Amino acid sequence: MKRVWIAVALLLAVLTGTLSHSFYLNSFTQELTGLLEAAEAKAEQNEWASAEELTQLAHHKWDEKTAYLHILLRHSETDEVYTSFREVAEFIQCQEGGEYSAANARLIAELELLAEAEQLNLKNIL
Q: Which of 40, 44, 71, 112 is at a distance of 20 to 30 A from 98, taking alpha carbons?
């Protein structure tokens, strides 16, 4: 009987960890997408310095969590986000409105898909 309780405790610990990670990643990516959407709005108003500042803040927040993200996510996915941040920053530097908007939208989509892929639902289980 003791083995059953240990197994149940382990399963509950894994489930709790999974749900905590999912919730945290969802809130983290929402924070980043909010910053990137604000940067997009600034760029549309030709406030490129503000757009760059907001994008750099989002990139800095991403970099702060690199170890956590590399441990719990696929490296290819985290690398794509990093590459997209670099691409967006380059378009801001050049003040290329159309290319920036497209790259920023792709970065936001990558972040949203990262969070979605970590959700505990039937779509991801099956």
A: 112
What residue ranges of the chain have pLDDT lower than 70?
124, 126
Contact 39, 28 (CB under 8 A): no
**Which tokens go with 59?**
């990139």
Residue range 96-122, pLDDT digits in tens: 888 999 999 999 999 999 988 888 777
What is the Cα–Cα distance from 51 to 57, expressed in whole angstroms? Answer: 10
Lookup: tokens for 89: 């920053």
Q: How far apart are CA 69 and CA 71, in angstroms?
A: 5
Cα-based distances in Å from 41 to 47, 97, 101, 104: 9, 11, 10, 11
Report how far residue 9's alpha carbon sits from residue 32's, in angstroms, rounded to the nearest whole number: 34
Give the list of residues 6+ apart from residue 101 with CB closer than 8 angstroms, or none. Answer: 40, 43, 44
Token pair belonging to 35: 């910053």
